[in-house]
Structure formats: structure tokens, C-alpha cells
Write a structure and sequence with these properties.
CATH architecture: 2-Layer Sandwich
Radius of gyration: 13 Å
Number of helices: 2
Distance between the termini: 37 Å
Order of helices and strands: EHEEH
Oligomer: single chain
Shape: globular
Helix content: 25-40%
Number of strands: 3
Largest sheet: 3 strands, antiparallel
Amino acid sequence: MLRTLTVLDMTCHSCVATVSNAVRQVSGVTDVSVDLAAGTVQVAAPETVATDAIAAAITDAGYTVADADASPAVGAACTVAGAGGCCA
């Protein structure tokens, strides 16, 4: 089963890697594709894998999963710690 989630606060390629790695840790996930420009994560997993579990993995990694009615974040800032941040 293929599903797409919207992540509001990904701002750079480090964010993409973090989200991708977090989702891959969910048991049963077979493939993950993150589109930074669209702010989406496409996940392939059997129906037995709850979408809530995937969303929780993304949230636990420090990102916000949009509700169906949510609008995109405007002016989101990079939240990855480090010297100069990830987008510097």
C-alpha cells in the first residue's frame, strides 16, 4: 500500500535524510521517497502498518505532519542543530 504524508517543516536535504531514516525504522516499511520541494513523504508498506505509526516516527524526528486541512508553513526555519545549521 502506498500513502503520502505532508511534512510542513522540511527545509533542506539534511531534513530529507532525517525524515527518510526515521520512516525506514518503522517495522514493515518497504520504501520511502521524500520530496523536499513538495513537502511530501511517500511510503510503501503493507496495510498492517498504521499511518499513525509512520506519522509518529516523523514527529519523533522533530517534524510536523500536516492534517488533511492544514496549510503549509510559511517561512519555516531549519531546526537541525550544528555549526551554522544545515542550510548555511
